[in-house]
Amino acid sequence: MSYFTDMTWKESIKDIIDILIVSYIIYKVLNMVRGTRAVQLLKGILVLVVIWALSTLLDLYTLKWLMNQMFTFGVLAIFIIFQPELRRGLEQLGRGKFFGRSAESDEEISKLIGEVIKAVNYLARRKIGALIVFERSTGLNEYTESGIPMQSVVSSELLINIFIPNTPLHDGALIMQGNQIAAAACYLPLSENPFISKELGTRHRAAIGISEVADSVSVVVSEETGQISLAINGQIVRDIKEESLISKLYEELRATSPLKDKSSAFWKRKGDNSHG
Question: Quick check: helix, strand or coil at residue 276?
């Protein structure tokens, strides 16, 4: 108690700043590993820490010795296991993104959307199926790890080539992170919503499914009808017109705030199509 009574106001401010900085770093690290397999590894490490604490508390000599040996070499193992996340964090730090989410400029977003629109229009005219997922606040690394990593600059030609039938990458989803193609041929969770139209196939169900577990935006091209659809917040608008698609993509990809309410005017206007 005397520690607090003896503190000066300068020391109090210094301690508050110290706590805020550490809390922010922990928050950014948790955001960095969210949506990756590292989350499961962190849970495993937490279990080991609990076992070590119990062995110390109950004075279980052999178990405590074993856990101490494990932690001695565990630091090196952590650097090896979390190498992708550490590398990504250092890259973000170098780009200045670690201390604030730097949104792409309007020009970059417009260029990105333009390339995507050109690609999906080409694919739709030829009834070539496609599924493009845009990552937003919720990390999708758990799903990019299931596909083929690319880290490629976006172009309509590349997007078209990826989805051409009988090519190695055409089967599965393409995931965009920022203004790059992160991975192709990715596996996504399928929606189990019983109210979804029976006409919708696996590609559309995957688009809805990923939007149910993350705040992602998905564009789907049907290989049966050539229709273009948009999935957000567990809902899908089928046969969306080009102007509406461009407007909604621009609005969602430009936003840095949390997802808007699911009952927005856009979905109300499209309500008749949302499950059909």
Answer: coil
Asked if residue 219 belongs to a domain, the reply is yes
Residues 174, 189 contacting (CB under 8 angstroms): no
User: Do the Cβ atoms of 179 and 108 come closer than 8 Å?
Assistant: yes
Torsion of CA 182, 179, 223, 230, to 10 degrees: 120
Task: Count other C-beta atoms under 10 Å from residue 242's C-beta.
Answer: 12
Residue 99 included in any domain: no
**Among 59, 94, 129, where does a domain finish?**
94
- Nearest one of 104, 112, 98, 92 to 152, comparing CA atoms: 112
Helix (H, G, I), strand (E, B) or coil at 267: helix
Span 134-156, mean pLDDT? 89
Given a contact cutoff of 8 angstroms between Cβ atoms, the answer to whether 208 and 234 are in contact is: yes
What one-character DSSP code corresponds to residue 185?
A: E
φ and ψ of 104, to 5 deg: -65, 150
Q: What contacts 106, CB < 8 A, 6 or more positions away?
A: 254
The dihedrals phi and psi of 65, each to the nearest 5 degrees, come to -65, -45
Residue 99 CB neighbour total at 10 angstroms: 11
Domain of 29 in residue numbering reads as: 2-94
What are the structure tokens assigned to 51, written together?
Answer: 């076992």
* The two structure tokens encoding residue 126: 């030829």
- What pLDDT, in 10s, does the model give residues 162-187? 999 989 898 899 999 988 999 999 99
The pair of three-digit structure tokens given for residue 244, joined into one six-digit string: 């509406």
User: Hey, how many other C-beta atoms are within 10 angstroms of the C-beta on 260?
Assistant: 16
> For the segment 22-71, what is each residue's pLDDT rounded down to a tens digit?
888 777 777 666 655 566 677 777 888 888 888 888 888 888 888 877 77
Q: For residue 114, what pLDDT band results from cuts at 50, 70 and 90?
A: very high
